[in-house]
UniProtKB/TrEMBL annotation, chains A, B:
<feature type="DNA-binding region" description="H-T-H motif">
    <location>
        <begin position="31"/>
        <end position="50"/>
    </location>
</feature>
<dbReference type="InterPro" id="IPR001647">
    <property type="entry name" value="HTH_TetR"/>
</dbReference>
<dbReference type="InterPro" id="IPR013570">
    <property type="entry name" value="Tscrpt_reg_YsiA_C"/>
</dbReference>
<dbReference type="InterPro" id="IPR050624">
    <property type="entry name" value="HTH-type_Tx_Regulator"/>
</dbReference>
<dbReference type="InterPro" id="IPR036271">
    <property type="entry name" value="Tet_transcr_reg_TetR-rel_C_sf"/>
</dbReference>
<protein>
    <submittedName>
        <fullName>TetR family transcriptional regulator</fullName>
    </submittedName>
</protein>
<dbReference type="Pfam" id="PF08359">
    <property type="entry name" value="TetR_C_4"/>
</dbReference>
<dbReference type="InterPro" id="IPR009057">
    <property type="entry name" value="Homeodomain-like_sf"/>
</dbReference>
<feature type="domain" description="HTH tetR-type">
    <location>
        <begin position="8"/>
        <end position="68"/>
    </location>
</feature>
<keyword id="KW-0238">DNA-binding</keyword>
<dbReference type="GO" id="GO:0003677">
    <property type="term" value="F:DNA binding"/>
</dbReference>
<dbReference type="Pfam" id="PF00440">
    <property type="entry name" value="TetR_N"/>
</dbReference>
Length: 197, 197
DNA sequence: CTTTGTAGTGTGAATATTCACTAACCTATG
DNA sequence: CATAGGTTAGTGAATATTCACACTACAAAG
């Protein structure tokens, strides 16, 4: 366990393994035993890399938050139409989760919510960041007269975000068996159809 | 513990207490100890009323399923407009959860999903029932030319249900501090504005 | 080149705690 | 007097965490 803020390769492995366990067996299945077993080393070895189990979850969520912010921010380009930006953001999300389904936990992280104050904070930040980003795009669309102005951005956001979350939940319930990118694209277009003029 | 299918008063108490614990402390907080403590009797007394902890959860979800079906079905009236039916169904939901916030678990039951096969099945049924009911209303609205036909009912359902779920999540995250019926009404109107002609 | 210190990473055994659940017993009431 | 519903006092299993110990790589020192 190094003192730096950097994440070591071993830590990253543990995070990924934890995410995998989380979606396969749920929060109850994530124990020091299962993590150690999946890592092919003993339980005590975990503590060479993380102070506690909670720290693993915190690291996982922090990583995702960081990644998501960087990734999504880079997708938004002022020269593009709001619809294009809207599509780009969600396409990026769906592609990312297709490659890293073990991070879907973070979207459906209600189960983790009650874990600790710190975890709750990160999850809330994750939501707020996404809301803020989406809010920008919606405002852009209203100003450029692409989107309907009848419904306030504030009211539109939970509808869009809720749809996204629900889609992810369905995907998880199917055990990730269908292609989330094609299904996701359908939803993107449907949502756009609803809010476009 | 009687042999009948009826739920005794004591069982109902336990179910309600469990629901309360579930939203306050999450699935991890729901233990024989916390239930017993909230009931003001010993842990072993629980087993006079339920065979296992899982049975409590199953009873809770079954009760809600039964209740929701009955309640929502009675709200749909063919002589009413689709918009009226739509409103009636959601108003009923919001009113019900306002009075029984401890049952919000069932809407946000992601955490329970991994508990057991049987529990997962009931939760899925709960979702499907609601989808089916809402689907009827949407179809009615399309036939009477009230609703937009651009987006298929199938595609519309997850958007509406996702919005509802997200609204409930926000409410829970706020610790049920605001009035869900007024906030809910806003969402109902917004959704209607989106799908109406 | 060899010794030696040290940081990093692993192990197995032991720990206290918590969990769901059970057994034996008590007692009021119909 | 049987039964429903409560009690106390356990049970074994699982859990997160700690500890003493061992091995390795490698850099500094002699």
């Amino acid at each position: 366990m190094t003192i730096t803020n950097e994440i070591s390769n071993r830590q990253l492995e543990i995070i990924e393994v934890s995410g995998k366990i989380l979606i396969e067996k749920g929060i109850k299945g994530l124990t020091t035993k299962t993590v150690a077993s999946e890592m092919n080393f003993s339980e005590s070895a975990i503590y060479r890399h993380f102070k506690s189990k909670e720290e693993i979850l915190i690291a996982l969520l922090s990583l995702l938050k960081q990644n998501m912010n960087k990734r999504l921010t880079s997708e938004i380009k002022p020269q593009n139409t709001a619809a294009e930006n809207f599509k780009a953001v969600f396409t990026s999300q769906f592609n990312y989760f297709k490659k890293n389904p073990h991070f879907v936990v973070a979207v459906l992280s209600d189960g983790l919510l009650d874990e600790s104050k710190e975890i709750k904070t990160i999850i809330l930040q994750l939501m707020q960041n996404k809301m803020q980003l989406l809010g920008q795009i919606l405002e852009q669309g209203k100003q450029t007269n692409e989107f309907n102005t009848e419904i306030s951005t504030e009211d539109l956001l939970p509808i869009i975000l809720g749809s996204f979350r629900f889609q992810m939940l369905k995907w998880k319930l199917s055990n990730f068996q269908y292609d989330i990118t094609t299904e996701g694209n359908k939803t993107i277009n449907n949502l756009l159809a609803l809010i476009q003029k």
